[in-house]
């Protein structure tokens, strides 16, 4: 854990694919105490590492594996089913029956120099995304004029500087089609070579725009339409996904080039998921070994536990600030149906315990007719700042929503080399699914705030 700067103590960019604006984070005051901006933290790491590695690490070569990527030839690597080279069913072929393999050169003593300068490949190879690419020599030259060029002898001499956090922001803004109109036109033209249609009209009227960091400091700016996304920025059309696929006749990036509701991959059909279908909660046997093992005099009931996205505070905003406390009661809460609450002798605002073999939660009960019987829910990321007493079952302070869940992998997420079922960073790949579970719920007999001297988690467990 490092002391990072807060929103108004650093310069950075903030945007999303769910709204059309680029927002700045601007330094109003210097970071407090020993905290630094994210950029300065990693810049410091790079500098010190470059110093201490001398004599231990030099220019090293290593084999790097990368997945069968979406929007690459590898997405058609396994069109007729999965054959496993480990079982002798087929030869090991990098990029087809196994991950891509590449030898990468690591220049460890020059990590700092490389961190603070643009690399040479952006000028030689260009930029791209989602299966298209375009030349960026002009943008790299202009970036050097804007940020300045490295003059120190070494691996990065003559390259554009990325010395400060604002320099880093300018690199993103200069090279991205969403913030550089000239790049956007080139990106649409590159896509047109694949579709046979001229799409440049979507960005031509903003070709001369180049959004700089100082521009968005003065006022958040709307992004420029880009083929990276399937919606457009327009004064007459609301942004919506799939717009360019329909109106620009751009194929969907799927096996058929259309929206699909059926998948014929052998793994999908083996799991009965060729069509979208309902699957009941998976019982991981987390309540059978603990229910009734340490009674407290109140009835215990087993329920399905889900953890929806929180509504009152997320990421950098706590739910117990004065504004949010007008919308919720503060502290951790777990929602129950009226039927289940009545069966367990629980009324609204009672202290309850939710537990299984993974862990335990101590929280207030919210009894609501909006919750289905047989299910209980806890909105995720409820902080443990206030109202977190000890658990009767563990003797330790009550946990959070993840205390009773565990990460489970879904096999169909591991499909690769099959059109849209190919890895894409932040889009498709094997994820940890830890959103639901089965739990035991009961009313607490004693609320222990564990505030006495020596009532640490360790001593609590010892005397539990």
Description:
The protein is of the alpha+beta class and 464 residues long. It folds into 2 domains: 12-248, Up-down Bundle (AF1104-like), CATH 1.20.1700.20; 300-443, Barwin-like endoglucanases (Beta Barrel). It is built from 12 helices and 15 strands. The strands form 5 sheets. The protein has a 6-stranded mixed beta sheet with strand order 9-11-10-15-8-12. A 3-stranded antiparallel beta sheet has the order 1-2-7. A two-stranded antiparallel sheet has the order 3-4. Strand 1 (12-14) and strand 2 form a beta hairpin.
Total number of domains:
2
Number of strands: 15
Give unreliable regions as ranges. Answer: 457-464
Q: Name the helicity range.
A: 10-25%
Question: What spatial form do the alpha-carbon principal axes imply?
Answer: globular
Structural class given helices, strands, pairing? Answer: alpha+beta
Query: Strand percentage, roughly?
Result: 15-25%
CATH 2nd-level architecture of the largest domain: Up-down Bundle
Rounded to an integer in angstroms, the radius of gyration calculated over CA atoms is: 27 Å
Q: Mean of residue pLDDT?
A: 92
In brief, what are we looking at here?
This protein is an alpha+beta fold and 464 residues long.
Helices and strands in order:
Blueprint lengths: L11 E3 L6 E5 L12 H15 L6 E8 L33 E8 L3 H5 L5 H4 L2 E3 L2 E3 L2 H11 L17 H11 L5 H15 L17 H6 L2 E2 L20 H5 L18 H5 L30 E6 L15 H4 L7 E5 H6 L7 E6 L2 E10 L6 E3 L30 E2 L22 E2 L2 E8 L13 H6 L2
Parallel strand pairs: 8-12, 9-11
Antiparallel strand pairs: 1-2, 2-7, 3-4, 5-6, 8-15, 10-11, 10-15, 13-14
Helix pairs in contact: 4-5
